[in-house]
């Protein structure tokens, strides 16, 4: 509990004393409130993805991954493929990852719309590369009706998804080509891979 308090996940509060004895209790903080079911910006689905053994097992293979030149990340070392490749073969995993990313998309969009609206205000068009099933895209496209928003992801991910007046879903492989737009957005995608690869190159 002390670690969680230190990390700001819980706070310590003084409780009314009993028999003149000082007492302390734990209370929720804005961070832990995000795990409450009744919170509209609840990110429990994202935590459930991280706690899935499929996602936890790669932590056991960090040293194997570091010694292996070819694997991009420990997930690939453990499962032989990337998470999104495994997910398209496993409907349960696919649904849980999508729900997790959707909860993150809602939270991040709400923070951006509250504090960093300027990012999108000046733009005519944006392509969200690796945008997944588009929860973040929908929030932003709805808030900026004059912004043309392209949610770009692998064909099997965006297949059958319906856009709106200013939101389109485009399938493709970013290593081949990406649709043209004034700005390119990467959310929870390139930074993750870049961090891991940088980490690996620093350690090896
Ligand atoms: C970690 S998810 C991030 C999803 C979304 N940006 C978000 O934050 O909710 C990474 C996404 O990248 C997509 N992706 C992986 N390789 C890709 C490629 N070569 N071209 C386009 N999208 C790709 C995956 O299908 C997945 O939806």
TrEMBL record:
BP GO annotations: methylation
MF annotations from Gene Ontology: O-methyltransferase activity; S-adenosylmethionine-dependent methyltransferase activity
PROSITE patterns for the chain: SAM_OMT_II
Residue ranges annotated for the O-methyltransferase C-terminal domain, each copy included: 59-187
Pfam family, one: Methyltransf_2
Keyword Plastid: no
Key word Ribosomal protein present: no
Family matches, as Gene3D superfamilies: Vaccinia Virus protein VP39 (3.40.50.150), Winged helix-like DNA-binding domain superfamily/Winged helix DNA-binding domain (1.10.10.10)
Keywords, ordered alphabetically: Methyltransferase, S-adenosyl-L-methionine, Transferase
Full protein name: O-methyltransferase COMT-type, S-adenosyl-L-methionine-dependent methyltransferase
């Amino acid at each position: 509990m002390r670690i969680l308090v230190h990390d700001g996940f819980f706070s310590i509060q003084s409780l009314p004393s009993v028999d003149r004895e000082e007492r302390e209790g734990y209370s929720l903080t804005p961070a832990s409130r995000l795990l409450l079911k009744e919170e509209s910006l609840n990110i429990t689905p994202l935590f459930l993805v991280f706690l899935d053994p499929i996602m936890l097992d790669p932590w056991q293979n960090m040293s194997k991954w570091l010694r292996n030149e070819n694997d991009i990340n420990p997930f690939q070392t453990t499962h032989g493929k990337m998470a999104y490749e495994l997910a398209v073969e496993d409907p349960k995993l696919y649904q849980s990852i999508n729900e997790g990313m959707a909860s993150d998309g809602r939270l991040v969009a709400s923070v951006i719309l509250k504090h960093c609206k300027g990012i999108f205000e000046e733009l005519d068009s944006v392509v969200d590369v690796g945008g997944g099933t588009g929860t973040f895209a929908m929030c932003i496209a709805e808030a900026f009706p004059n912004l043309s928003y392209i949610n770009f992801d692998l064909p099997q991910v965006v297949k059958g998804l319906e856009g709106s007046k200013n939101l389109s879903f485009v399938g493709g492989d970013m290593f081949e080509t990406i649709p043209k737009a004034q700005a390119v957005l990467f959310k929870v995608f390139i930074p993750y891979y870049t961090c891991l690869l940088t980490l690996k190159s620093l350690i090896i």
